[in-house]
Every structure is written in C-alpha cells, then in structure tokens.
Design brief:
Strand order of the largest sheet of chain B: 1-2-8-7-6-5-4-3
Largest sheet of chain A: 2 strands, antiparallel
CATH superfamily of chain B: START domain
Strand content of chain A: 5-15%
Order of helices and strands of chain B: EEHHEEEEEEHH
CATH class of chain B: Alpha Beta
Number of strands of chain B: 8
CATH architecture of chain A: Orthogonal Bundle
Shape of chain A: elongated
Shape of chain B: globular
Number of domains of chain B: 1
CATH topology of chain B: Alpha-D-Glucose-1,6-Bisphosphate, Chain A, domain 4
Oligomer: heterodimer
Radius of gyration of chain A: 22 Å
Structural class of chain B: alpha+beta
Number of helices of chain B: 4
Helix content of chain A: over 70%
Number of helices of chain A: 5
Order of helices and strands of chain A: HHHHEEH
Distance between the termini of chain B: 25 Å
CATH superfamily of chain A: Winged helix-like DNA-binding domain superfamily/Winged helix DNA-binding domain
Largest interface: A-B, 36 and 38 residues
Chain lengths: 115, 163
C-alpha cells in the first residue's frame, strides 16, 4: 500500500467512533440507520465518519442497494495491522535486547559486591 | 515485562512506555554508554549500528547511524543534549539523517524526553517525542524505520480490544 494511503487509514482510525464502526462492521454489513441506532449519534455525524472511512479505503458502500450498506474492506485493515506489527517488532526487539543486557548488568553488580 | 505501549497524547507528540526489571541506575547506563547502547539499540534483524557516538552532557552531541546488512543503505539520528537529571531524566534534540534511504522526516529537530522512574526494583521508562509540527510527525510515521513510528500500533490494540 502506498504510504499516503496508509497515513489516511491511520488518521481515519485515530477516532474512537470510527474504530467502533470498524469493529461493528467486522461482524457484517450495516446500513447507516443501523449504525445511527448502534452509536446513538445523529445521521449526519455517522455519515461524515463513514465518508472518512470510505475515502481511506477502509470501508466500501454498495451503490446499487437503496440503503447503501457499509462493508469492511479487510485487505486495507490488514495492511494497517501488518504495518503496525512490523513497527512494534522493531521497538519491542530493541527493548527485549535491553532486558537481556540489564539482566547481565545486574549479575555483574552482584559479583562485584561479593568480591 | 509487558510489551511497549504507545499513545498519541497530542497532534505533535508520541509517547512510548515500557517497564524493565532493573534499577534505574542500570537502565540509565544502558541509555548513556555507547558500548551498551549499541548492544540493544541495533534495530531490527538485518541492521547493524556502525556509528554510536554519544557525549551525554548538557550541550554535548550524539550521532547514531544504522546500516542494512543486505544493501548497505544507511540512515541515522543526531542531536544535542538539553537537560540531564542523573538516573531520572534526559532531554535531547533529534534530527533525522536520511542517509541514502531517500526519505524525509521534516527538517526541524524534534525534542525527545526520556524519564526513568524506579519503584520496587522495576524501572518505568517513558519516551516522549515532540515533533516541530503535525506534518513532521506524520512524515515520521511514513518513514517506516524510525523512532517516530513505533507509536501507532496502539491503534491496533484499541481496535482489537473493542471488538
């Protein structure tokens, strides 16, 4: 995925309501009115959240059906989670090496004290 | 120890927390002494840290550089130390040195604050990276291999936790 698209997806997911919508849609398609009921928000608010998710490519909306139900685009979400996992690996990889180093420094200190 | 936890406290800031099973003065050494730093801060597998120069006194400078084993590409960070509180807190500037990766992270230095808090033999380390602007933070996000990035995997945790 192109980085600007990834940025867009991150920005879209930075909002708790939009994350809630994504989680809800992970269980299956839903119409705007269903989402309005589920989140106790006004229809224009839900619609504007959906617009952000749609332009980030995280959801798609069926054009032919009258209710235009919303559907998750799992590939896009997976691209985001894959990237996050990769990032976490780098950070946590460093920290795990630090754990090992600290254990070694602690042992050294103990030995020094015994001398 | 629980894996690193990241959050975005503001538009221009990234905060990463992690605890370590060692007293603060040992964790401090691992952050301040180049020979120790190099052993753990070497980045992901396939990368080495050929340059790790550090003069961690107020006004001192540091330079870190990583190199890919595969194709020899390099990038790094450098900056100046602004504040030092022994075993407790270090503040320094950070400028991204894109080397030959051909990416930009914005020209303005960011401010990195690392705090060390010891309780019962455990040291909690909090790293705050404050970017000069939201644009710089977003650029850091897109770079793929840098300090600014480890941040948003928290989003994934949130998504999964709510599900």
């Amino acid at each position: 995925m192109h980085m600007t698209q990834l940025d867009q997806a991150f920005a879209a997911l930075a909002d708790p309501t939009r994350r809630g919508i994504v989680v809800h849609l992970a269980r299956g398609e839903a119409s705007v009115s269903e989402l309005v009921g589920r989140f106790s928000l006004t229809q224009p608010t839900i619609s504007s959240h959906l617009k952000v998710l749609e332009s980030a490519g995280l959801i798609s909306r069926r054009k032919e059906a009258q209710l235009r139900p919303c559907k998750l685009v799992p590939e896009r979400l997976k691209a985001v989670t894959d990237w996050l996992e990769q990032v976490q690996e780098i950070w946590e990889g460093n920290y795990k090496r630090l754990d090992v180093l600290l254990a070694e420094l602690k042992r050294h200190e103990k030995q020094e004290r015994k001398k | 120890m629980k894996p690193a936890e990241a959050s975005l406290p503001s538009d221009t800031e990234v905060l990463v927390k992690r605890s370590f099973a060692a007293p603060a003065k040992l964790v401090w050494r691992a952050y301040m002494e180049p020979d120790l730093m190099r052993r753990w801060c070497s980045g992901q597998p396939g990368w080495s840290m050929p340059v790790c120069e550090m003069d961690m006194r107020v006004g001192g400078r540091y330079r870190w550089r990583w190199r890919s084993d595969e194709n020899g590409q390099e990038f790094g960070f450098m900056g100046e130390v602004l504040e030092v509180v022994l075993h407790a807190r270090i503040v320094h500037t950070q400028i991204f040195d894109p080397g030959d990766l051909g990416v930009s992270m914005g020209g303005e230095p960011s401010i990195v604050t690392v705090t060390f808090q010891e309780a019962g033999g455990i040291t909690n380390v909090a790293t705050s990276i404050k970017y000069a602007s939201k644009a710089d933070r977003d650029a850091a996000f897109s770079t793929g291999m840098t300090d600014g990035m480890e941040t948003s995997y928290k989003l994934l945790d949130d998504v999964l936790a709510e599900g």
